[in-house]
Design brief:
Shape: globular
Helix content: 25-40%
Largest sheet: none
Strand content: under 5%
Number of strands: 0
Structural class: mainly alpha
Length: 108
């Protein structure tokens, strides 16, 4: 941060040293998303494809496009496909309250 933006401090390690740990955590947590966001460091991307964007998200995306603002589908710790002992997300929309199918956790 200090070198790039003249605020805060520079970390004693760089992103390239941390990237393999982010990648393994993404696999462990079952992260889904879309690679290639130009505002982030280049990576192989999440191990699972992005969740679908619903009508509300598409409306916001179109508004961003009209305004010339950058937008990108976010990453999520839930998969749209069955993987790693987890079932596919069925878009209940109750993630914060608790998925009725327990999709945000690994089956044990």
């Amino acid at each position: 941060m200090r070198t790039l933006d003249d605020v805060g401090d520079d970390w004693p390690i760089d992103y390239d040293e941390l990237a393999p740990h982010y990648d393994s955590t993404d696999v462990e947590f079952g992260v889904s998303g879309l690679a290639g966001d130009p505002t982030l460091p280049p990576t192989a991307g999440p191990p699972h494809p992005p969740l679908p964007i619903g009508p509300g998200g598409r409306r916001v995306a179109h508004a961003h496009d009209r305004l010339g603002w950058h937008w990108w589908p976010g990453t999520n710790a839930v998969t749209p496909v069955a993987a790693g002992g987890r079932g596919a997300c069925r878009q209940w929309g109750t993630c914060l309250e608790g998925c009725p199918e327990g999709r945000r956790r690994r089956r044990t």
